[in-house]
Amino acid sequence: MRTSVASLGMYDHASQREANDRLWSAIARILRDRRVAGVPNRLERGRSVQDGWHDPDLLFGQICGFPLVTDSSLALRVLALPVYDAPGCGDALHRSFLVTRKGDADTLEAYRGRRAAINDRGSNTGMNLFRAKVAPLAGGGSFFGDVRETGAHRQSLSAIVMGEADIAAIDAVTFAAINRAEPELTASLQTIGTTVASATPPFVTARTTSIETVAALRMALADVAADPGLADVRAALFLADIVPGGADRFTPLRALETDAAIAGYPELR
Q: Is 77 helix (H, G, I), strand (E, B) or coil?
């Protein structure tokens, strides 16, 4: 019997890994009780989350909303949306904080010609929402002097602290996790604004997953969201609830991309 893949790599800060492992163990136990075959014992951490999104054996994962609506090679089904209890979040929405060094300029306009950091060109919170914020100021041309791709939100924060970048848009849930676990890193940073809100990264499964398994997954998510024995797990993950939702919730992310292109700012630059 082929074992499927499960991943929770979107929000898997070192301080949250034990909580993610316990959350998956609870979900896996429920799935096995409902006779779902091939349920993995452990979360996948040996490769990038992007690789997992393309795996036809993906049983359970979480995806950034922007590639969900822009990457035509993905074949995923949305299961549900998380609701996060963190600053900048609520009602299955989240946003990004504009983060700079403490004591630096406190308006976005003041960063014209300076250095931006982004985690990934395909990121909603790190790039798409940031681009939408900058587009009205750019005047159809470049806004930043340089845009550096760091590979992760935490690395973007480190680049600011080290003086290698001046500003970044950091996912609110990630920022909350780092602020709680690594206050020495965020102590030298400040937030100077926020982006617009967008739907939270959804929980997904491969499109080939059977309807019966999809139903079992959705029931398992409802169960772990309400289980009092997992209250500490949910708190560690800032997870307040898990609610129904579909891919249509992410259509506005494509609209932000289109609006930026119309404004003459198709790329964050």
A: strand
